[in-house]
Specification:
By secondary structure, the protein is an alpha/beta fold. It contains 11 helices and 12 strands. The strands form 3 sheets. The protein has an 8-stranded parallel β-barrel with strand order 1-2-3-6-7-8-9-12, surrounded by 4 helices. Strands 4-5 form a two-stranded antiparallel sheet. It has a two-stranded antiparallel ribbon with strand order 10-11. The longest helix has 21 residues, at 173-193. The protein is globular and about 55 Å long.
Length: 358
């Protein structure tokens, strides 16, 4: 999806401690961001996740990221029931296509419905569609063609198979996984040969389902949301496997949907994975914040830089305003003493084996 991490000048990102041999970065699969920031724009907020924003504000977010060197943009039919794709396409169509990496997802089909609720699946003021799951051969082809029409594009750089985990599908999980192997992956390979997409990946919140799929098939890249962050490193053991199979990694949800993106108190109504954060995780986040305070480091800066130290080609940020993009850039450039990371290791708040920024 993007270039390997390169050492940057002080105006870009800090260097990273050399990872162990099992934690080297997977090979790249597509063109880089122009300035090496390794920050990409995630499209969920542009689909009015939780709060509505105007078309003008959404377009301003995309243009701000582009002007700042961002060249990686991720969206999905799920995000506002096509709204995020439409907004991204409206802006990105006016930029040189070969200079950007654009991804979307398959698994959900959208059907027009004049009675569609304005609030669905956490998105507000959505477009008048309802969604249903479809991992079939015909459903995958239609999904790609529909996305390209909303985007106004002729091809996608990456297509992620979206949300195939047990939490999402419950008793249907085995059926979904079998259909992904039998229908979805072969169809995406065919569409890749036809030139409608360049790379095939999984876009999931659960690293266990990745291991299951890899027992039977391979793919080019993985978008993993929420399972590798300063608060949750449960996917750490998966990373050497990705490296061995040359599967490129993109990280999303590095603030765990909000708990790491703000100043915390015990009264904070923090969210984790888009729900109220359990007390145990809030307590751990408060401990992380206390250590950060000792070194005069904002918690969001530590969270973002920890994710950027991972063997990932890109970290996708869900941004809803130009100001938030600039705040993220400032967090990525904030100077953090190595002693902070050493203390977090000593207190077992992060694993000894996790790569840390230098």
């Amino acid at each position: 999806m993007l270039d390997r991490f390169q050492t940057q000048s002080p105006t870009h990102l800090p260097a990273v401690d050399e990872p162990t041999p099992s934690m080297t970065m997977p090979k790249t699969i597509s063109p880089p961001c122009t300035d090496g920031t390794r920050l990409g724009l995630g499209g969920a907020p542009l689909g009015n996740l939780f709060h509505a924003i105007s078309d003008a504000q959404a377009h301003s977010v995309i243009e701000t990221a582009w002007a700042d060197g961002c060249r990686t943009f991720d969206t999905a039919p799920h995000y506002g029931h096509g709204l995020s794709e439409r907004r991204m396409g409206d802006v990105l169509r006016h930029h040189e296509r070969n200079n950007l990496c654009l991804s979307s997802k398959v698994g959900r089909l959208l059907t027009p419905d004049p009675n569609a609720p304005s609030e669905q699946h956490g998105y507000v003021n959505t477009l008048p569609f309802v969604q249903h799951w479809d991992f079939s051969r015909s459903g995958i082809r239609r999904s790609i063609e529909d996305s390209l029409q909303r985007l106004g594009m002729t091809h996608l750089d990456v297509v992620f198979i979206h949300d195939i985990d047990e939490k999402t599908h419950g008793k249907q999980t085995e059926h979904v996984l079998q259909q992904v192997l039998d229908d979805t992956l072969p169809t995406l390979q065919r569409l890749k040969e036809e030139g409608l997409l360049s790379h095939i990946g999984l876009g999931v919140n659960d690293h266990h389902v990745v291991s299951r799929v890899l027992q039977h098939a391979s793919f080019d890249c993985l978008l993993l949301a929420g399972r590798y962050s300063l608060l949750d490193q449960t996917a750490l053991a998966l990373m050497p496997i990705l490296q061995q199979k040359s599967i490129a990694l993109a990280l999303g949800g590095v603030f765990n949907s909000g708990i790491l993106a703000q100043r915390l108190t015990h009264e904070t109504q923090a969210t984790f994975d888009y729900a109220a954060a359990p007390a145990t995780l809030l307590d751990k986040a408060m401990r992380l914040q206390t250590i950060c305070d000792e070194f005069d480091v904002p918690l969001p800066a530590a969270a973002l830089q920890f994710a950027l130290a991972a063997p990932a080609e890109i970290v996708l940020l869900g941004i809803r305003s130009p100001q938030e993009w600039q705040q993220a850039r400032q967090a990525a450039a904030h100077k953090i003493p190595k002693a902070l990371w050493q203390e977090l290791r000593e207190l077992e708040l992060i694993p000894q084996t996790a790569p840390i920024p230098a």
